[in-house]
Design brief:
Number of helices: 13
Structural class: alpha+beta
Number of strands: 21
Largest sheet: 5 strands, antiparallel
CATH class of one domain: Alpha Beta
Helix content: 25-40%
Radius of gyration: 21 Å
Distance between the termini: 51 Å
CATH topology of one domain: Rossmann fold
Low-confidence stretches: none
Length: about 425
């Protein structure tokens, strides 16, 4: 088989790494790729925003399966373009990708299909939004309707903060057209968890659970980022909760999309809030999570490619998945200033100290190859250090030991990834 992965971050490196292991894959392409991906795949210079150019490449090269990593090309209709040329693609159509591409659509969809989520209102007028804010209980959440690279969500402790968020989104257009419409919803408390299934439009296969960390600083402080770390399994998603999520969230989502004429084929990532009222949906994502993919795929013992092919062709009835028992922890090494402005081109040292292997992995997120073959920074999230261990404590220790030995000017990372899991395990042990 010939496989093409679209994207160039840590998620795509993890996908390419796992796909490269498949015995059925003869040629692997990834575009645009990065310094790490280039070691295992050919990286043609394709712009994912140029949908026709990508689809033409797929057709011309005879690509058997295209795996789309980022949400933007999915929402723009890349899947539809490739399918129109008679080639298989893993990722939802533009119609199905509205679950992530439009917060307003997804919230209204959940309301139509009885899927639990926080109460909300939608606004396309600044004055109306601000009047609503003045009467809304605190705290509240203001969200850009469109795609904003994970940064268009504002948790507001005061009415002034909420009005400022509306001004940034709707007037200043901090995220362009993504903020033309805003969703204002009740803030819900509890434990966040990420839940993933692969769907063929009718059937679903759940993946192992994961929890990520979106805020830039320890203790969940600071602005939202694309994700600063993750661990798997998510301890708060027990079997009973997983069954509840499958029945009350996933099943009506897949059925609802099919009933509305946009069958969902691909990976569905449900961001959940877990509390005493039961699981509720914070958001949908229509692609693999980043950095959750970096802890999920290393735990996958079976071949990923047949699973992706089966979903792309609409028949998961014979698909089988096997998982490793080990836990996994990922720590994201970020550039100075991220998620704001950050420098690029800084030399990275320390990667050559590790042989790596199946239990210690370095997924490149924002890197490029510099003069003489040295690796340099090229993004806000630079490297994802992933370790497997006999349990979360072991994986966490190994991940941080490795992270501490990699350097570039201004590097920073959260020091508390999986610490809440450790605290929960300690409490459970005390009550055993």
């Amino acid at each position: 088989m010939k496989v093409l992965v679209i994207g160039g971050g840590g998620r795509e490196h993890a996908l390419a790494w796992k796909i490269r292991q498949s015995r059925v894959v003869e040629e692997l392409f990834c575009s645009p790729g990065n310094a790490g991906i280039a070691e295992i795949a050919d990286c043609p210079p394709l712009a994912s925003s140029d949908l026709d150019a990508v689809a033409d490449f797929v057709s011309r090269q005879g690509i058997d399966l295209t795996v789309v990593g980022p949400e933007m090309p999915l929402c723009q209709g890349l899947t539809d373009k490739i399918q129109a040329r008679g080639r298989a693609v893993f990722g939802p159509s533009a119609g199905a990708a509205r679950l992530e591409g439009s917060k307003a659509f997804s919230k209204q969809f959940m309301r139509r299909h009885g899927i639990p989520t926080a109460p909300f209102e939608i606004f396309d007028d600044v004055d109306a939004a601000c009047r609503y804010i003045d009467t809304h209980p605190l705290p509240m959440v203001v969200k850009a309707d469109g795609l904003a690279a994970g940064k268009g969500v504002f948790i507001c402790e005061t009415h002034e903060q909420a009005r400022d968020a509306v001004q940034r989104l709707m007037v200043q257009r901090a995220f362009g057209g993504a903020g033309k419409v805003v969703v204002i919803e009740r803030f819900v408390t509890g434990r966040e968890a990420s839940f993933f299934v692969i769907s063929d439009g009718v059937r679903v296969i759940p993946l192992v659970t994961a929890q990520d960390y979106k805020r830039v600083f320890d203790g969940d402080r600071g602005p939202n980022t694309g994700g600063m770390g993750a661990f798997s399994p998510a301890l708060h998603l027990d079997r009973a909760t997983i069954s509840h999520v499958l029945e009350k969230v996933v099943a009506p989502t897949i059925k609802g999309m099919a009933d509305e004429g946009s069958p969902y084929r691909g990976v569905l990532y449900v961001g959940l809030m877990l509390n005493e009222a039961g699981p509720s949906v914070l958001e949908y994502n229509v692609r693999f999570g980043d950095p959750e993919t970096q802890v999920i795929l290393p735990r996958l013992a079976s071949d990923l490619v047949p699973l992706l092919v089966a979903a792309a062709h609409g028949d998961l009835s014979n698909a089988r998945v096997e998982w490793r028992r080990e836990a996994a922890v990922t720590v994201v090494l970020a550039a100075q200033g991220y998620p704001g402005q950050y420098p690029k081109g800084k030399k990275i040292t320390g990667l050559d100290l590790f042989v790596g292997g199946p239990d210690l992995l370095f997924f490149h997120a924002g890197t490029r190859t510099g003069p003489g073959g040295e690796i340099r920074t090229a993004g806000g999230r630079v490297l994802d250090v992933t370790a497997l261990g006999r349990d979360i404590a072991d994986a966490r220790r190994r991940a941080y030991e490795a992270a501490s030995r990699i350097h570039f000017p201004g590097v920073h990372f959260r020091r508390d990834v999986a610490s809440d899991a450790m605290e929960l395990l300690a409490r459970r042990g005390a009550h055993a």
